[in-house]
Amino acid sequence: MTLSRRRYLAALGGSAGVALAGCGGGDVNRTTYEAESVSAPEEVSDYVSASSNFDGTMVDLTGRDEIEVTVGVQGNGSYYAFGPPAITVSTGTTVTWRWTGRGNAHNVASQGGGPLNSSLTAEEGHTYDHTFEQSGVYLYKCNPHEFQGMKGAVVVE
């Protein structure tokens, strides 16, 4: 019997203190954290569930001042994913999205309006920063690859 990637990650994600790579494959351009996994709230699960690298959990990165999310990691049939796809942070945390240069041009855009609005680029190493000053759920996407499942979420506590 072959386990799907989602089932494998769900089983792995329940372990405390796991190392989480927000993408699949042997790509060195990935963001890895030693962190707890927590269940994603329904709003996040409903939005991000179409992304092949989302397993129903979020990486709990509360208490850190700076976080990095990788743009253009393996997922959704090519390099059409954010890694990790869903995170929890504290108010005042700066999240930096860093492009891998793979999967064509990407951007980071809030779903339904909001504070996230990066430029569309395919440049490796390009970054976009946002400091989250208010608690809430921030859903975002890559406009050109949203239909392929390139979605993410930041929950700010």
TrEMBL record:
Localization in the cell: Membrane; Periplasm
CC per GO annotation: membrane; periplasmic space
Tagged with keyword Membrane: yes
Keyword terms, alphabetized: Copper, Electron transport, Membrane, Metal-binding, Periplasm, Transport
Record-annotated Blue (type 1) copper domain positions: 70-157
Main location: membrane
InterPro entries: Amicyanin/Pseudoazurin, BlueCu_1, BlueCu_1_BS, Cupredoxin, Halocyanin
Family annotation (CDD domains): Halocyanin (cd04220)
Annotated positions binding Cu cation: H106, C142, H145, M150
Annotated SUPFAM superfamilies: Cupredoxins
Record's cofactor remark: Binds 1 copper ion per subunit.
Cofactor: Cu cation
GO molecular-function term, one example from the UniProt record: copper ion binding
Gene3D superfamilies referenced in this protein's UniProt entry, alphabetically: Cupredoxins - blue copper proteins
Name this polypeptide is given: Halocyanin domain-containing protein
Source species of the chain: Halapricum salinum
Lineage summary: Archaea, Methanobacteriati, Methanobacteriota, Stenosarchaea group, Halobacteria
